[in-house]
Amino acid sequence: MSNPVAALQQLHKNLSSVVMCQPQSLLLTLTTLLCRGHLLLEDVPGLGKTTLARALAKSVQVDMKRLQCTPDLMPSDITGVSVYNQSEHRFELIKGPVFTNLLLADEINRATPRTQSALLEAMAEGTVSLDRDIHALPKVFMVIATQNPVEFSGTYPLPEAQLDRFFMRLSLGYPSEAQELEILKSQLNGHPLDALQPVMSEKALQALQAHCDKIPLGEGLLEYINQLVRATREHPQVTLGASPRGALALMRAARALTLLTGKKQVTPATVQTLAEPVLSHRIIFRDPALQKAEARAEFWSKLFADLPLPDQTAATPKQPNDDTKQTSEHSSGQASGQTSGQTANTNGPTETV
Question: Is CATH 1.10.8.80 what the domain over 213-329 is classified as, yes or no?
Fold first, then answer.
């Protein structure tokens, strides 16, 4: 792809025309998509979680299926079942909704633990095991699961193993006054989602996902990510720290967000921005108050302050000679001089992180 940043800008703009939420939430959603990850949306009802999933599927021209999770949902309702064909004297596989590109699991915590576990293999390995056979899922596969953080009656909390499979946990949050007014105006005569046009093909999306692997990441940044994740395990306020899977997710997310924002290289500020959405759901805190994002802001600030910043003057891997050059031409500047206490303001794919 000759200009990946421009393509991502167009995708971000397309989503913004339908989903009215904090700009950073859309940016992090695209980061998860580029990293082939899965997204957990934790929000009260009516904020556009389903609309976001549908808009994303239409924008990149991929198949989407919706799964309404209830206590009586069975694992076979997700993965599929083999049915005996009497006329042909053989069993035929009736594939479940998991065989798609984008699976929306609405209110996932209302499904039983047995049913929730049906997604573990699909999310971690991209395969489904049925009747002693292993079936591969599409190369573009993403689970967007939702849960209500307020209503817990009749729900089953996701276990740590399930939470660790989610690349990020986000909250869309309430729209601003201007955004809410725009929502009312945009739906006076139908829903804008009905008129949404695709801006990218599935093949182009795969090219962008592969391009993220070309973003340079120096030894100093790798050590910084390693130290940050290990610090969560040694913190006195933490019972269970982030896993190595969390460290890998943070590394991949930093590369993808760097591409989205048109940066030349990953910076410590980018890593710090991603710590909360990538790592927080993988950590068990001793203090129940830290289960709220507002209370965790101070936790992360102190953790960043205790870690030495990597040497940005150290040699970094050479950038590829193909379309990465185009990416750098759209860079909005290098933020290597930011201090450890600074947090990025990611209001759009062209802003500096």
Answer: yes
For the residues 305-321, what does the mean pLDDT come to? 67
Give the Å distances, CA to CA, from 67 to 97, 102, 106, 110: 7, 11, 6, 12
Q: Which of 41, 5, 50 is nearest to 166 (CA)?
A: 41
Greatest alpha-carbon span in the chain = 71
* Residue 226: how many other CB atoms lie within 10 Å: 14
**pLDDT confidence band for 346 (50 / 70 / 90):** very low
Output the pLDDT for position 317.
52
> Scanning the structure block, which residue is given the tokens 């915590």?
109
Residue range 4-74+101-184+193-203 forms a domain whose CATH class is alpha beta
The full set of domain ranges for the chain reads 4-74+101-184+193-203, 213-329
- Nearest Cα neighbor of 231 from 299, 183, 165 is 299
pLDDT of 152 over the 90 cut: no
- Give the integer Cα–Cα distance in Å for 353 and 344: 5
pLDDT of 258 higher than 80:
yes
Q: Quick one: tokens of 309?
A: 């910043």
Distance CA 143, CA 168 (A): 11
The CA R_g of the chain, rounded to the nearest whole Å, is 21
Whole-angstrom distance, CA of residue 25 vs CA of residue 181: 19
Distances in Å between the Cα of 27 and the Cα atoms of 75, 199, 308 are 32, 16, 27
Grade residue 214 by pLDDT with cuts at 50, 70 and 90: confident
Q: Is the dihedral of CA 37, 292, 147, 59 positive or negative?
A: negative
- CA distance from start to end of the chain: 23
Measure the CA–CA gap between 225 and 279, rounded to whole angstroms.
Answer: 11
Average pLDDT over residues 2-16: 90
Contacts of 133 (CB under 8 A, 6+ apart): none
What pTM, to 2 d.p., does this model score?
A: 0.85
